Recover the amino acids of this structure.
């Protein structure tokens, strides 16, 4: 499970409520929350991969 799964689920909830109520602003806010969570996960994974690449040997 990703570190930002809660943020992604919150975004899905906002998007769903926006769909049901016809609130396009809430729909977009939910989509943004989901995209933000996915971006944070991708950056975190890339950082983890790079950590091993740039360690110094003593």
């Amino acid at each position: 499970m990703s570190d930002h799964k809660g943020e992604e689920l919150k975004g899905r909830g906002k998007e769903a409520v926006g769909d049901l109520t016809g609130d396009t602003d809430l729909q977009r806010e939910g989509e943004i929350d989901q995209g933000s969570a996915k971006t944070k996960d991708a950056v975190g994974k890339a950082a983890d991969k790079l950590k091993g690449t740039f360690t110094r040997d003593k």
